[in-house]
Specification:
With 157 residues, the protein is of the alpha+beta class. It has one domain: 2-Layer Sandwich (Alpha-Beta Plaits), CATH 3.30.70.100. It is built from five helices and four strands; from the N terminus they run αβαββαααβ. Strands 2-3-1-4 form a four-stranded antiparallel sheet. Helix 2 packs across helix 4 and helix 4 crosses helix 5.
């Protein structure tokens, strides 16, 4: 009987020791948010009006349709009123998706939807290519980056 009590005592001590070694789960420091592609453009001299017209007649309707179909969460343009010299950016575009998968994964279904949107807008693949190539005479890409929003969670008490 003494052995049984002793065995139970050691089993309990072992269980308590094991529990003491198990770390408690701590909440993550941050919560990931949506993913955005930020593109900085240098509008070439004398091309501001042409680029503005291209954006309003081509890029915005396509982005609006992507948003309507749930392919992107949002988009926006922003400007920089100052310059750091030649080649500095003066127009920016941010496109936001729900996740990295939406932003960078080559999903055939998603690609087909994007293709259908642009073909509907331009009419033909050749017209789409010609229009996109025309932007090279209006602006250059200074920088292009993928960023993710994060929310900092409160410290546990």
């Amino acid at each position: 009987m003494k052995r049984v009590y002793l065995s139970i005592l050691f089993a309990c001590l072992f269980a308590i020791g094991t529990q003491a070694q198990t770390p408690t789960a701590t909440p993550p420091a941050t919560t990931p948010g949506p993913v955005s592609r930020v593109i900085y453009y240098d509008v070439l001299p004398g091309q501001n009006e042409a680029l503005t017209r291209f954006i309003r007649t081509n890029q915005m309707p396509i982005l609006e349709e992507q948003k309507k179909q749930g392919l992107i969460l949002n988009y926006g343009f922003f400007g920089k009123p100052t310059t750091d010299g030649p080649g500095d950016w003066d127009l920016g575009l941010v496109i936001t998706w729900a996740s990295y998968a939406d932003a960078i994964d080559a999903n055939p279904e998603r690609g087909a939807k994007l293709n259908a949107i642009t073909l509907k807008h331009y009419g033909t693949a050749e017209a789409r290519t010609k229009a996109n190539e025309s932007t090279m005479a209006m602006r250059t890409v200074v920088s292009n980056m993928l960023v993710r929003a994060v929310t900092f969670n409160p410290m546990p008490k």
